[in-house]
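User: Let's play a game. I give you a shape written as tokens, and you guess the letters that built it. Ready? Here's round one.
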């Protein structure tokens, strides 16, 4: 048996499902920049990274009404427009993600991404990284 086989004697998975943001890619800088552009559109001061991280984790349907009140739908559109302009230039693969996907693909393990990210953004990001 090879060292690889003895170190991880797990059965071959039938398939692996991955989340996208925070698992395969680091989207935090893009999300933070899009939020700051949205805040600035409303004449508000941009957030520090710590302020933004405290807000992170809420869904858009919960976070935007809380932060922008009755203007939340317009603010969300501004945010999405900013995100769309920034994401392909600033999004980064997490360390080891590319190698992991390549190794699993070489072993013909079926792979998929499950995400609540807007579909066209996710598809363009996945295509961007090949």
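Assistant: Ready! My guess for every position:
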């Amino acid at each position: 048996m090879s060292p690889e086989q003895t170190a991880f004697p797990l059965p071959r998975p039938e398939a692996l499902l991955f989340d996208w943001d925070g698992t395969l890619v680091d989207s935090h800088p893009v999300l933070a920049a899009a939020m700051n552009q949205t805040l600035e559109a409303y004449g508000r001061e941009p957030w520090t990274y710590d302020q933004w991280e405290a807000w992170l984790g809420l869904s858009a349907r919960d976070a935007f009404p809380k932060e922008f009140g009755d203007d939340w739908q317009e603010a969300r559109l501004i945010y999405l427009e900013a995100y769309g302009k920034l994401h392909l230039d600033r999004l980064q693969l997490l360390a080891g993600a590319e190698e992991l996907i390549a190794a699993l693909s070489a072993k013909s393990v079926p792979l998929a991404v499950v995400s609540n990210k807007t579909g066209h953004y996710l598809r363009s990001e996945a295509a961007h990284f090949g």
